Every structure is written in C-alpha cells, then in structure tokens.
Amino acid sequence: MADHDAVIIGAGFSGLYQLYKLRELGFDAIILEAGPEVGGTWYWNRYPGARCDIESIEYSYSFDPELEQEWNWTERYAAQPELLAYIRHVTDKYDLRKDIEFRTRVTTLDFDDVACHWTVRTDDGASRTARFVIAATGCLSVPVQPEIEGVDDFGGETYWTWDWPEEGVDLTGKRVAVVGTGSSGLQTITAIAPDVAHLTVFQRTPVFAIPAFNHEIDEELAEVKSRYPEFRAESRVTRGGAHCADPEAKFFDEYNPDEVVDELSRRWADGGLCYQQSFLDLVLDPSVNKAAADFVADQIRHKVNDPALAEKLIPTTYPIATKRMCVDTGYFEVYNRDNVSLVDLREEPLKGVTPQGIIAGDTEHEFDVLIFATGFDAMTGALQAIDIRHGDLTLRDKWSEGPRTYLGLMSAGFPNLFTITGPQSPSVLSNMLTSIEQHVDWISDLLVVMRERGQRRIEPAVQAETTWVDITNDTADLTLFPQAASWYMGANVPGKRRVFLPFVAGVDVYKQICDGVAVADYHGFEMTA
C-alpha cells in the first residue's frame, strides 16, 4: 500500500491549491517543496522591482468567497512582497503547512507496475510512495545560467535575479551592470536606476513593453468584490483567462484607418498585456501585427529623448506579442537619466567577464556589481530536472525532441503522473491563476471518479497524445509565434529543441475541450482497476 494517495511537487500557487482541494475531497496528500518557504516563483524572484504582469484582482484564487472578500490588494499590479504575503496568508488560513515538507527536492520518480504507485526519492536520501504524483513545478522555475567566460573571476559582487538575497542588496552609489532585458531585467533596471552611481544595461534583444499605469485600486476592488462570481465566470471564457477593456477586439479589417489608431491608443492608455488583444488577428496577419508594433515603436520614440538610443530600444527582429511582452513602470524613461547607458550586444558582442567588469566589443566596462537577468528553461525545465522513469522509459528521452502530452495534463507511458499548467496547455499564454484552478479542479474531479470506480491507474492513449501534439503544433504554425526566437519556443536554452510549448488557441477553447473530454468519460485516457 502506498504511503500517500498523492505527492504534489512544489508549494507555489498551483501546489497549494491542489493540496487544499485534495484534502477537502478526503485524499491523503502532501507537498514536497525544494525551498524553505511557500511561494514558488514569488519566493525565489525577489529581485528589485519584481512585480506581476497580470492585474492583482485577476491574479488570485477564486475557490473561496470568504478569501476573496477578506484580502485587499493595494495596487493594480502587485509587487513581489504583496504576492508572497498573499500566498502565506492562504497557506496559514487553510493550515496547509502541516502537509508540506520544505527543503525537500524531488530527484527521482520511478513507477512500479506491480504495486501501481510511484516511488518518490528526494535529495535527502529519503523515499516515499504515492498512487499519484502531481507536478506543480511551475513554468518559470529552472533558471538559465549561460556560460560566460570569466564570470567566476569578477572581483566585485555578482547576483542573479532568480536568487536575490533575502536581506536585499545595497546598490547605492555603485557602478552596476544588468545583463538581460526580459521581464526580470526590465523590472530590475527600472527599480535600481535612481539609486546607483551608474547603470549600464547590456541588451541582446529589445523588448516590447506596455506601460502598467500602476495605481492604488480601492474603488476598483470594491466594485469587483460586489460581483466576484460573475467576474470570475467571465474570466474563464476569455482567450487569456482575464478581463480586457471593452469593447471586445475585432478583426483588423473591421476598422477604418482612423479607428485603428483610436483602438491602439485606447489599448495603450489602458495599459498592460491587453494591448496584444487589440485585434483578433494580431498574431495571425503580418500587416496587422506591423501596425500594432509600429504604434509601440512611436511611443518609445516619444519616451526616449535621444533618437539614436530610442532606435536601439525598438524591436525589429520579431513580431510584436510573439515574445513575452513586458508591463513596465517607467522602463524607457530610465534611459533619459544621465547615469544610465546602453550597450547593444548586437553591435558590440559580449566577449566575457574580467576581474574588473565586462568586455563587449572592443571595450572593457568596469563595475562594482554584476546582475544577470538571463531567464528560465520554461515549461519543461523543471520536469526534466527530475529523473522520471517507468521501466526503461524516461521522460527526458521521450521529450528529447519536444514535449509530448495529452491536453498538457499527462504523457503516455507515465501512468498516474499529472502536470499542472504543463507544456501544450494555455499556461504562460494565460492568466496563470485561471489556468491553475482549471487544471487542479479537472485533475481532482478525475481522481474522485477513479476512487468511486475503484480504478487505480490512468494514462493517455498514444493516439490521443499524438493527435493533441499535432493540434498544438499545427495551431501554433497558423500564427506568427514561431517566427520569434523566444522562450515560448525554448530558443533561450542552448541545445533545446525549438518547439512551440504552450497551447495557443486560448483558455476558453481549451476549457471546452477539457470539459468535453470529461463528459465523454475521459475520452483519450485509459483507466484500469
């Protein structure tokens, strides 16, 4: 008999809700968490300026009306300390800590066909067995550490945004370099620029960033609290799992030229990621995409005083929205400061680190502090960091040419192993909280059905998985997404096969598919006693 009904890997938003849900349903479940505290992404990513790019009201649990009413978000886009405080509040409110083992990293999963359970081994040498394993390992939880010659020789301080010291870092009056201009780099740059003596940004690829227009939200929060059930129901049937400003987007050719500018201006003025939903065909039609990109380029030119510098900050090598767009709180304006400069690595390639600083092109730049914001091995990295095996089959080998899943929930050949917001689900293209709750609820309902039927084992049929992989890839190929060397494609990880990782058709479509599979007695899955 297994030690537990379920082992959940990870104590972030998804793992905590999965634990809560299974406990409420009478299952014996525990969480194994590598870190010393709950929070997942929001525990580890505590660098200066760390902030969510989904609005706080949306980026929250909906499973308990009491929780919705008692928690008061202070800002439109919550910063890391507030997000972590919320997660800790949830953990303590539902007494979840008693079923979490911290500082326990899962290293190996091995399925036993005879016993019909997983053996879960951890870095402390211990092992446990569980009928089911649910990987709540996060989509952006394994950092990429590029091999940069000489990093260990640097004589000053070196930091990585994904492992920022809990006690913080005093950068006052120091010469600082930031390498990387994705979301974490952009947020760090914006936050530290006023404090440092001089900041040099090393940019490989410019980013499209839309202003947050962040502000206190007392009135907005009160209005949403008065109709939370309706508000949540609306979010679940949108493409991105969150509200975007009305009116709903239309196809580009339904607007006249003046209306196109008006719509882009309205979306820009509202701020945030809803800009990318200006037109229904924005990621389908290159001419539509160019109109949206040109508008943002003009906004960057207005924000940056130096015309030549502005052009360096404007993306030109990929369609807008095909890399993760950023939500900024004054990023482009930072470059108007006298103490901020940009090194364009397309013109001056980064050659290495010296004891004094960084060599780019033919110039050595001297620094007191180096900060690396170099991103993550998205969506598959955390799963492939674990040695997951069933007999002679390993998940690493099976996924060597790209992930293969059914609905992003399971992978054929690995019974009783579920992934929350895994590859080939909407995941990072959606409001993660909407997708997390949909996955947790779906998995939990399935486990109840299996318990009621006395069934012990489930896995996808190979043909169902193949069909889903084809659907995911074919749908992505209809869009402009594959044209960008993005982490959506795994392009930021040397040697990783470039395959579009999330399901692109939207939360609304995906939910209908999952609900239909369940109604059809879990079509495509094979369940046995």
Quick summary:
It contains 15 helices and 21 strands. The protein is of the alpha/beta class. 46% of the residues are buried.
Q: Characteristics of this structure?
A:
single chain; alpha/beta; 9-stranded mixed beta sheet; 5-stranded parallel beta sheet; 15 helices
Can you put this structure into words, describing what you see?
The chain has 529 residues and is an alpha/beta fold. The protein has helices at 13-24, 41-44, 65-70, 80-93, 183-192, 218-225, 228-236, 257-270, 286-303, 307-312, 381-384, 395-398, 432-453, 462-477, 507-519, and strands at residues 4-9, 29-32, 100-101, 106-112, 117-122, 127-135, 157-160, 175-179, 198-203, 209-211, 326-328, 340-344, 350-353, 357-360, 363-366, 369-372, 387-390, 393-394, 417-419, 457-460, 525-528. The strands form five sheets. Strands 1, 2, 3, 4, 5, 6, 17, 18 and 19 form a nine-stranded mixed β-sheet that branches. Strands 7-16-8-9-12 form a five-stranded parallel β-sheet, with helices on one face. A three-stranded antiparallel β-sheet has the order 13-14-15, with no helix packed on it. A hairpin with a 2-residue loop joins β17 (387-390) and β18 (393-394). It is globular, with a radius of gyration of 23 Å.
